[in-house]
Amino acid sequence: MIIAERKPIKEILSFLGPGEKILVLGCGTCVTVCMSGGEKEARELSSLLRLKGWETKDLTVERQCEPEFNLRAREEIAKVDAIVSLACGVGVQALAECFPEKKIFPGLNTTFMGMPKEQGLWEERCWGCGNCIVHLFGYVCPVTRCAKSLLNGPCGGSKNGKCEVKPDRDCAWQLIYDRLKKENRLEVLYALQPPRDWSTSRYGGQRKMIREDVRL
Amino acid sequence: MSALEEILRRGEFVVTAEVGPPKGTNREVIEKKCTGLQGFVDAVNITDNQTAIVRLSSFASCLIAKDKGIEPVMQMVCRDRNRIALQSDFLGACAWGVENFLCLTGDHQSMGNHPQSKNVFDIDSIQLLQIFKNMRDEKVFQNGEPLKGEIKAFLGAGENPFADPLEFRVIRLAKKISAGAQFIQTQAVFDLEIFSRFMEEVRKMGLDKKAFILAGVIPVKSLSALNYMKNEVPGLVVPDYLVERMREAKDPKEEGVKICLETIEQLKKIEGVRGVHIMAISWESIVPDIVRGANLYPRSGRS
Amino acid sequence: MRVVALGCDKSGYPALLRWGEEGSLPFDEVKIFSLPCLGLVTEEVIFRILENSDALLLAGCPLDSCHNQKGSQGVYLKVKRVNSLLQEADIPKKVAIAFVTSGKVGEIEKVSEELLGREK
Fold it and tell me: How many whole angstroms separate alpha carbon B282 and alpha carbon B280?
C-alpha cells in the first residue's frame, strides 16, 4: 500500500487562514491502514483544528484517488473555504482535479509503497521501477531495498547483515544471499547483471498505463 | 601500457598510495603530496569525492599529479554520475593520458557533507568495469555504438574481504575480474587471519592468476583513530589485540607504523598478493618511512 | 479549570468518587463519569471531550494489573500521543492518567497537580 505520514501540525496550521471554514477529508484506503489519514485521524485533526479556533468538519471517502468517490463529497466541499486532504499525494491531486476552484492542502507527506512488517511498523518494498525482477533476487528487490540499487552484489559496507547507511536496516544483499543459499540457487548471483534500463522508471516524468479495450 | 601495469607484469612487488584532493582549488596541496611520494610508490590513487565529501575532482587532480611526474590511478565512483558522464569522463581522462582507473561503487551520500543530494547509481562498479573494457577492447559505447580513437587503460576495482556476506566476497571478486578488472586493491588489512582465508579461496578459484591483487594497509597514528576504524567504518575489521597494543603503546605513532610494517611483512609472504596499497589517510608524509621500513625502497620504476 | 474525569468500573471510578467525596477539589468544575475499561478511550473520544473542557483526568487499573489485561497499557500510549499532538499544536490542554487501585486517591491528587501545573 501507499504509506504516508501526517505532516507536522505546525505546518498544517500554517496553511490555514484565520476565519476559514475547513473540511478535513480522510481517505478510507491505504492511509487508513497505515493509520495516518483515515476516518479516525480525520476526526482527530478536525477536533484539533476546532481547539485552535477554526470552524472545522470532517468527512472520509472510500478513496480520494478515484474521482467518483470525491464527487460524492461535493456538497460538504461546497460549504467550506479550504480542504485539508489526508490522502496520499495521488488523492490530493485527484481531489484538486475534481474541484479545480477549491483551496486544498496536503495534510500528509507521502513516502513510499510498503507493507506492515509488524504492528506499528511499515517498511518500503517497491519503488515502481517499471520492470519487476524480484524473482531473480530471492524476492528481495535490490532496486528498492539496496541503498545504492546495486544489481551485482553487496557493496563493501555490508556488515553483520546491516546496511552502512542505516545500521538498523538489513542489507538487501545479505537477505538475497541468505534466501538463494537456502534454495541452493546461488549461481544466480554469479551471473553478471548488465546495466539496467531505467527508462521504465521514474526519471521520464509522469507515466501512464492504458487499456484500450476498456476505453469506451 | 601504464607504468603500474608494466611493473606488475615484471613480477615486482608493487607499492601504491592514496592522495585525497583538497576542498578547494589549491593545486599545491596535491603537488606537495605527490612530490613527497615520488620515488617511493609506483602509482598514486586519486580519490573521487571520497566519503561523499566534495573535493577537487579526481580527473583534474590526476592531471595535476601527471604534471608532477606521478603516475595516477583515477578513482571513479558510481554515486555521482550516470553512464553518460562516466563514459565521457573516461574518454576525457584517456585523451589526457591517464592510464589507470579504479572503478568503485562509492560511499552513500548520507555519509558525506551534502547528505541532502540525490544519488545516481545508474550503474554499479561491475557494470562500469565492463563498459570501460568494451570501450577499450571492442571500441564501443555501452549502447553498442562505435567510438573513435585510442584507449589505453589499465582497469582496477576494489574489494573488501572483510565485509559481509564473507563467503560471497570471493564470488564478487570473480565477477569483477570477469567484467574486466585487471588489478584489485583491497580494503585495509588488520586481520591477517581473515585475509589469509580470503586469499586461499582466491587462489582456489585461480583469481590470483587472472588479476593482480594489492593488499591495502593503513598506518594508524593513535588509539582513537584505530577505535574509530574498528567501530565507525563499516567493512573494516580490527582485531582486539591490535587495539590493546595501541592502548599500551608509549608512542602511538611509532606503534602504528610498527603494526603497519609487520602487516606488510606478512602480506609479502601470502601467495597471490602482488603488492601493497598504502592508504595513509591524513598522514601521507609517513609513506616514505613505511616504504623504507618495509624494504621496498628504492622503487625501480619503468624500464 | 474545567475537568472531566473518567474512571474504569473496576478501580478508577470508585477512586474518583472517593476523591470527589473528600471535599475541596482543586478545580472550578469537575464532572465524573464511569466506563467499563479505560481501553475504550480512543484519541477521538479524548479530543471530543477536550473541545468542551480544559483537561481530562483518566483513572484506571495499574499498568500491570489491568482487569482487562491491556486496557491501561493501550490508553497510556494513546494519551502520550494526544499530549504530544496538543503540544505540537500549542494547545494549552492536557490529559493525564492516574493508575489507582480501588481505594487510593493519592495518585489522583498527584495527577491533579500535574494538570494544574500545566495550566500555570
Answer: 6
Which candidate from B106, B168, B235 shows the least CB-CB separation from A177? B168
CA–CA distance, A69 with A62 (Å, rounded to integer) = 6
Domain ranges of chain B: 3-293
Interface test with B, best of A140, A145, A148, A162 (most B CBs within 10 A): A148
CB A3 within 8 A of CB A122: yes
CB atoms inside a 10 Å sphere around CB B239 = 14
CA B301 to the chain's CA centroid: 19
Q: Which chains touch A (3 or more CB pairs under 8 A)?
A: B, C
Percent of chain B past pLDDT 90, that is, above it, reads 89
Domains of chain C: 2-119 (3.40.50)
Contact B124 A151 (CB under 8 A): yes
Helix (H, G, I), strand (E, B) or coil at B56: coil
d(CA B247, CA B224): 9
The residue extents of the domains of chain A are: 2-111, 127-204
Instruction: Residue A51: list chain C partners with CB under 8 A.
Output: 47, 50-51, 86, 89, 91, 93
- Look at residues B175, B131, B182, B132 and name the one whose alpha carbon lies nearest to residue B154: B182
| Closest-CA residue of chain A to C46 | A44
Chain C residue at shortest CA distance from A10: C89
Determine what percent of chain A is predicted with pLDDT higher than 70.
100
Cell of B271: 601467495
* pLDDT tier at C102, thresholds 50, 70, 90: low
Q: How many CB atoms lie within 10 A of CB A40?
A: 16
Residues B207, B173: contact at Cβ < 8 Å? Answer: yes
Q: Which CATH number does B3-293 carry?
A: 3.20.20.220
What's the topology of domain A2-111?
Answer: Rossmann fold (3.40.50)
Nearest CB among C43, C44, C88 relative to A10 is that of C88
Instruction: Give the residue among C100, C108, C41, C98 at the shortest CA–CA distance from C67.
Output: C100
Q: State the number of CA atoms in the 13 A half-sphere of B128 facing the CB.
A: 31
Q: Give the whole-angstrom CA distance, residue A38 versus residue A29.
A: 8
ipTM of the complex: 0.90
Put simply, whether A199 touches B (Cβ < 8 Å) is no
Residues of chain B found within 8 Å of residue A190, distances taken between Cβ atoms: 171, 174-175
What are B92-130's pLDDT values in tens digits? 999 999 999 999 999 999 989 999 999 999 999 999 999
Give the residue on C whose Cα is nearest the Cα of A47: C47
pLDDT per position as a tens digit, A163-179: 989 888 999 999 999 99
